[in-house]
Structure formats: C-alpha cells, structure tokens
Amino acid sequence: MKITAVAATVLGLAASTLATPPRLGGVNTAGYDFSVSTDGYDTLPYAQPPLYQYPYFSLEGANLYRIPFAWQLATPTLGGALNTTWLAEYDQNVQAALATYAFVIVDVHNYARWNGEIINQGGPTIEQFASMWSQMAAYYKSDERVIFGIMNEPHDLPDDTLWPPAVQGAINAIRAAGANTQYILMPGSNYTSAAAMPTVMGPLLLNITDPATPGSTEYLLFDVHQYLDYDNSGTHSACVTNNTEILSTLVTWLKANGGRQAILSETGGGRNDSTCYTNLGEELAFVKDNYPYMVGFSTWAAGAFDTTYILSLTPTNETVDAPLWEYAVRPNLPAPTYT
Predict the structure, then answer these.
(1) What is the pLDDT of residues 139-150, one digit of tens each?
(2) Which stretch is the leader sequence (predicted)?
C-alpha cells in the first residue's frame, strides 16, 4: 500500500494542520456500541468490527470510518480511568482505518446518558463526561485524522439549554489534553436530527467556542443524522424520501450563520430495497454536491453486523459488496486514495 499524490491532495496531508475539511465519505463500522441501549445502559455483549473492512472499503473510495463505542467500555467507572485493555482492542480498529489514510470518528454512543441518567441533568456531571474525553483525546492527540464525535444521538432532554454546556466542557477537555488540530463533532438533540438542527439545538450550539482557535469555529462541525424510512428511525427497510429538502434547509442555515459546516454521520436504508438505492444515492449526491457546507457522510452500517441486518452494508463472504453499497454509496465516495 502507498499514499498517492491524489491522496495527499484529498486528505490535506501536505499541510501542517487540517485547516480545510476534506470531502469525506464512508461507513460506520459498528460493534463496540452493541452493548449500549438508547437509555445509556450497558448490558449486552459487544463485538469487535472485522479489521478487513477498512482496506476493503478504502480500495473502493471510502476515506471515513465512524467507530462507535459504549462509554462504559472506555471508563467502566463513571469519571474513572480508561480501561486500557479495552482501549488496546478498540485501537486496533482505529489504527487499521488510519492505515488506509482515512479519517476516523471516535464516537461515544450513549445518547447523552449513563445508565439512564442524562448528562448535566441529574446524571453524570460535565466534569465526569469531560474526564472521559480528556483521556481519549490525550491518547489520540497525535493523530490528526482522528475526529472526536462527542456524543451519539442525544434525545428526550428535559432542558435543551443544559446540553451545550456539556458539549463545551467536552471540547475544553479535548483541547486541554493537547488535541488542538482535530475536528470535533457537535451533536444536537432529537437524535441529532438534521431536520431539527436549524431550529432546535443548532441555534444554541452556535455559541460554542474552540479554545484552540479563539475567534474561529473552523474545527467544530455540526453532527447530524437522517434516515430514509418514514419515521427517521433507521429501523425499517423501506425508504420513503431522499432527504434532500431537509438537507437543503440545513445547508441554507449553515450558510446564513457564517458558512458553518456539518457532517451526516449516520444515514441508511434497506440493504436490498431498490427504492433505497435511488433515494440514498440522491441523498449522498446532494451531500457531495454541497461541499464544503456538508463535509461528507458515513453510512449505517457495516462492522460486526451480518448480512441479514436490514441496513447492513457488510460485504457477503468478505468479498461481495452489499447491493445498497454498490448502487448508492460507492458512486458517491471520494476518489480512492488507498492502493
């Protein structure tokens, strides 16, 4: 394997910092998140995503991998030290992805909760949340292509105004740990819905600052999700929309607020549904065409999901593309940078 001149241009590796986000496209490699439910309880077994998938997808043009994990795996005690045994396993996936010259979203998948209790709203304190991020950031501070996904899909927050201080606390901890040039993803509420971002949490998150770059928010990206089924849950195989109207509204809002940027870090549709091939393809093409306001996308999902999962992008027998990947995702990926 080697990095090509095209790769250096696409990934911005010639620069000392990644001041302009590259166009990103790829997939979630799930498994470390299997143990956590939407109420933040960590009760089930997790599974390590297969390492072969990173070179497999990168050879087809992927340059972004989101690797979600349960908070309790990282710090089994709330506010405590990192579990170095688990981290060594998790890092195998991160390094396998980085080895393909891709970017990696390190994503905490706890829905703004720890065992049912909401961060800064009767549950974990901002300091306990920030402690975990301080340790993860210190571990990855030398990897400029690591992106910190502060929290997956906050939802049903009693007081939306109490979420931005938790986001700011995590950002401050990441920067204080020495990770000063990596991008950070700021999630909204309503399962970080792209439809809700411009009117619900987005206006509050506009006030978040980056201590590493005073007066600039270039390294802070809005984190949005939007599925194509009828209730935007990602739990049905049928697709009823291409989401371009929703994303157009988001882009208009981003432009109106100083040219801010967002990333679609989860989206997906039925693995074998031809309507989804069309709708997802149109959605991802919209994201690609609206760079740099939409930095890119990571589709849901491959990793430890088998091919029977309705939204699975996992290759069959490790060699054959899932139909949804072949017809909708792969045509909208950045140019291959890994050979």
Answers:
(1) 999 999 999 999
(2) 1-19
